[in-house]
Amino acid sequence: MTVGAGISVSDKKLIVLGNSILTDVHDNIDITPASGDDLMNGAFIGVTSDQRGSRRVFPVGKLEGLRFMCSFRFKLWWMTQRMGSSGKEIPFETQFLIVEAHDGSHFDDSDEKTAVYTVFLPILEGAFRAVLQGNEDNELEICLESGDPSVERFEGSHLVYVAAGSDPFDVITNAVKAVERHLQTFSHREKKKMPDMLNWFGWCTWDAFYTDVTSEGVKQGLESFEKGGISPKFVIIDDGWQSVAMDTTGIACIAEDAANFANRLTNIKENHKFQKNGKEGQRAEDPAMGLSHIVANIKTKHALKYVYVWHAITGYWGGVRPGATGMEHYESKMTYPISSPGIQSNEPCDAFNSIAKNGLGLVNPEKILNFYNELHSYLASAGIDGVKVDVQNILETLGAGHGGRVKISRRYHQALEASISRNFRDNGIIACMSHNTDESNLFMLTSAKRTAVIRASDDFWPRDPASHTIHVASVAYNTIFLGEFMQPDWDMFHSLHPMAEYHGAARAVGGCAIYVSDKPGQHDFNLLKKLVLPDGSILRAKLPGRPTRDCLFSDPARDGKSILKIWNLNDFSGVMGAFNCQGAGWCNVGKKNLMHEELPGTITGVIRAKDVAYLPKIAEEGWNGDTVMYSHLGGMYCPPVFLIHH
Questions:
Q1: GO MF terms on file (predicted)?
Q2: Same structural domain, 254 and 378
């Protein structure tokens, strides 16, 4: 059976552009061609089955002897990368998969010209979401879930989109655009309005104060930067500004440097710490005495352009307190989240365990637009320009009784985008803790017409030495997928930190916002002045920063030899960063980040001008391919190929 110009199933093999990608393909696997003249090398994988149930797993075929890279959820909230060459190495909750159709190094020109890259994108169909995983027989499997025991029927014809071609970046982009045309419900990153805050240096209050943040602390932080000649132009007031409390019967979950996940929202307005002359237990109803007084003060005194605040997608970690005075009309009800088996098999999470134990006050999905609009309109009236919306993946665990995870997530995200559009004119939203095929893909595939910025990895953990190289590698590889939908946000870092230059260099090539979370008085201004111009703007690259082609299938965190190279473009030049990420990674046995080599050795690699994949797109007409390289650290001009040592 031939599909399009290059995809077929023949003799139980999935053949892509003449290459066998999967063998022993099951008889109930269906291939449906993608419609449209420009989609000839794309098709949908589906299944024929009379099975019913809210969770079903279908083997497709065996993947053996071909290199792959995938992005999978290692915990409820976040993805990371995995490389391998057999189906059994594909983890649960894999949401993006790219396979190289032959062995061999990309350093050889002939390999680059003959390699075929096949992309697998699990998508949504009806009330079900699809995800990939492997089994012990090296089979690639499709896992379907609705998240509601009463939702059991599925069609099954369009579960995974498959596309192929000779340029991996073009294949991925074209695959996402093909799904965009198929679903007609989301927009590719290129069509979205990027918020202007991306172009300015910023400061986030989280690591500086955690939930102990106060209006006075915000003022002190901004004054501290100005003393060193650096002026942030945007601020994110993170968790700690809201009115929250724990139920009298609640079980506290207070970890070091974290929120109490048992707390619930008790009022949409700020707590006493952000009221003028505020006192605990008292509330000033005059709007001029509320959040607006600190926002007006810092914008005027420090020439801030933008102020964002944090909130969870359900209001707070524990949701909205049912029956709270002034919030009865949101009809919040106690709900107890249930995570999927795939998530349960990966890293445990204190935040989720606390929410599951204490329950979550879930706003009636019919009232969620009202909730967001009242919250955001109040914030906008106080001078707030946008929001960082966190804890988004919790919605996938709340689908029972609401028609499933897809339906409840769609309702919440459509309401969220409508409220953002109505209240924040610069498209002021950062999506966070949202890496799943309900929030990131559903958020991207069924409702993300506008949201343009998404946090691309787990947090910056200042006191976890294993986390720093993992962070940079995870963001880079996650961006291969996420960067098609939104501009990835590389998260904050500390300018005064043993790994500060490492993190700063990564942000410089990431095409992302650059912001830190320094405590007042703890800054490295020499480092910051390398990243921030005198007017507070940054030199932001044009695209999401991604690994170079020859890094796609190597493992820069675990193989002991590979350098991670990240490429990007400016208006008139290419830019590339080279990073030694060896020594630490997420362990699928220990189910956490671990250092496997405390002192990784020096590794050597090669940088070439053609590593910047789209360099010809910015070259002048008639360019003959000649290039000059400049090394930031070495301060020297180099020929088009040179060795690097890390």
A1: galactinol-sucrose galactosyltransferase activity
A2: yes
